[in-house]
Design goal:
Helices cover 43% and strands 16% of the residues. The chain is α/β, with parallel strands linked by helices. It has an eight-stranded parallel beta sheet with strand order 7-6-5-4-3-2-1-8. Helix 1 crosses helix 2 and helix 4 crosses helix 5. It binds pyridoxal-5'-phosphate.
Length: 220
Amino acid sequence: MNRPGAIEINLRHIRDRIVQASSPGQGVTLVAVSKTIPETAIEAAIEAGQRVFGENRVQEAKGKWPPMRERHSDLTLHLIGPLQTNKAADAVGLFDCIESLDRPKLARALSGEMRRQGRQPRLLVQVNTGLEPQKAGVEPDRVDPFLTQCRDEFGLSIAGVMCIPPAEEDPVPHFRVLRAIAERNRLAILSMGMSGDFERAIGEGATHVRIGSAIFGDRP
Ligand SMILES: *Cc1c(COP(=O)(O)O)cnc(C)c1O
């Protein structure tokens, strides 16, 4: 685990690399992935100016983030991991952006909870660009009808798409598939790129990169 000084240095370095990789006018948001990372290290990142964070488990985020949000009013929290329907209420209450919408049942649950709670987290559809059976996400061929269903049947406005390319493959073709989906559906947000490939993702048009280990070190 890095000491707080290291987190600040890592963040500065990542921000520089993001700027270097970006084209003029391409605003790229750094989502600092803090799954499994203890509060002291997250506080170091906040101290270093980071405001947008990503967690992959509702249960973990529920324990960690409410106290942190009390101390800092301007944080933005993204859910980047799979979401079970029975956690939809917690997710709508906790997160500002849910990146893992991938099925009608979940769309229906989120729509109901958003109405009940009067909260409107941003929604991204996760796309399984690698057609990996063990991975969440809508298959690329099914994304367009799913977006239509989200809008027409559940009254949801979808802001963008997210993908996690297969670990052992060149990610660029996957980034291109995601970008094509976003362009033809006129979606503004492209969440793609992690510690090992974020510069290539930015080169392919990413608006949000999700970076964990390059900021916080290897996860425990
Ligand atoms: C863990 C995780 C990341 C960050 O991965 P790093 O390689 O540590 O940068 C990004 N996206 C998702 C969905 C993750 O689960």
